[in-house]
Specification:
Blueprint lengths: L4 E2 L9 H12 L16 H18 L5 E6 L2 H13 L3 E6 L2 H10 L4 E7 L21 E4 L1 E2 L4 E2 L10 E4 L16 E5 L10 E6 L16 H6 L9 H17 L2 H20 L4 E3 L10 E6 L7 H10 L2 E2 L10 E4 L6 H18 L1
Parallel strand pairs: 1-13, 3-4, 3-5, 5-8, 8-9
Antiparallel strand pairs: 2-10, 6-7, 9-10, 11-12, 12-14
Helix pairs in contact: 1-6, 2-6, 3-4, 7-9
Length: about 350
């Protein structure tokens, strides 16, 4: 079988051990003689999976007391409305750092006033905007920490005078996070945690129950806290894989070790881009994502982009085509992507460059 280097932006590469153990559980879940696809979510065997997943999630991320971890459906896109449904009385502040932040802003406007305190739309989102002038009368501040399409990321946990909410779909568990600075963190699992179909939510419980509106049962975080993410049938298979991924992270030495690995992978590729005669990065250097590395060919070599794409594909590179709004190339270097894949891409780039320039 040809070696494949999976740079897909999501669903993305997962640890081989997590995939292998999930495949085994599809055939026989923990010796039950049943598939994890068909075991009851109310069974003691699956309840044990849920309990261990929540406990390990909290342990690795350092989630403080007073916070609940939920696993829901609907993706981060559903959270765009669940957040204001549960937290916004009259006004919220948002940072507009990319497409997904814009989508979150659009949904929030249906619940009250939205103050966009900063934006990087003036330069096609090629930098992370400053977080300042936070309105004291807003119910919360919402940020998107990593922007998959444009390849920007914020690497610090901002100090906010009002409750802080973050969409961490594409960089959760890629670096340590001070959860205590946030009222709520959410994201889709399909980047660094598991397959598509599960959404994680970390919520400070005392933030809830303060809005004046009626919240539909399924959209009320308190419903899912009370029922331990089992008010309705949860996404069982993705949760099983999330547990296997968390076990893998722990086996490596935890999030600090994962961060070190991610920094090394990103440095290798960014150095190759910066030292190239034909490739150039699209993001301001102090905003460069460790998860989604975007680059194009210099203007005089633009005509070679399709040819390089074909060469890279023949060499086993998968998922490096840039988003249509940016063009060029995007290499998503999520936690499970091995260094050898980044090295293979860098070698491919250098070989192509030497043949053309």
């Amino acid at each position: 079988m040809k070696k494949v280097h999976n740079f897909n932006a999501g669903p993305s590469i997962l640890p081989a051990i997590a995939v292998e153990n999930t495949a085994k559980a599809i055939l026989d879940f923990n010796g039950t003689g049943m598939s994890v696809l068909s075991v009851s979510h109310r069974s003691k065997e699956f309840q044990a999976v849920m309990d261990e997943t929540v406990a390990l999630f909290k342990e690795l991320l350092g989630v403080p007391e007073g916070y609940q971890v939920l696993f829901l459906g609907g993706g981060a896109s559903l959270q765009f409305c669940m957040v204001p449904y549960n937290l916004m009385n009259k006004k919220a502040a948002y940072v507009e750092s990319g497409v997904w932040a814009k989508k979150a802003i659009k949904e929030a406007k249906g619940f009250g006033e939205v103050s966009v305190i900063s934006s990087s739309s003036d330069k096609n989102f090629n930098y992370y905007p400053a977080i300042e002038n936070i309105p004291a009368d807003a119910d919360y501040l919402h940020i998107t920490t990593n922007n998959t399409i444009y390849g920007t990321e914020i690497f610090t946990d901002p100090d906010s005078p009002i409750p802080l909410v973050a969409d961490m779909s594409s960089d959760i568990f890629s670096r340590p996070v001070d959860v205590s600075k946030y009222a709520l963190i959410y994201g889709g699992a399909q980047k660094n945690l598991g397959p598509s179909g599960a959404t994680f939510v970390i919520v400070k419980e005392d933030m809830l129950g303060k809005v004046e509106r009626y919240i539909p049962t399924m959209l009320d975080y308190r419903t899912h806290i009370k029922e331990g993410s089992m008010f309705n049938t949860p996404p069982c298979l993705p949760i099983f894989t999330i547990l296997e991924t968390l076990k893998w992270i722990k086996s490596l030495g935890g999030i600090a070790k994962v961060q070190e690995m991610n920094q090394a992978k990103a440095k290798l590729l960014y150095d190759a881009i910066d030292n190239s005669r034909i490739f150039v990065g699209t993001v301001e250097k102090n905003s460069r994502s460790l998860m989604n590395i975007c680059f194009v060919m210099k203007e005089e070599y633009k005509h070679l982009e399709e040819e390089f794409m074909n060469v890279a594909k023949a060499a086993g590179m998968v998922g490096i085509k840039g988003h249509r709004s940016v063009g060029g190339f995007r290499a998503s270097t999520y936690n499970a992507l091995p260094m050898e894949s980044v090295q293979a891409l860098v070698d491919c780039m250098k070989e192509f460059e030497n043949s053309k320039a």
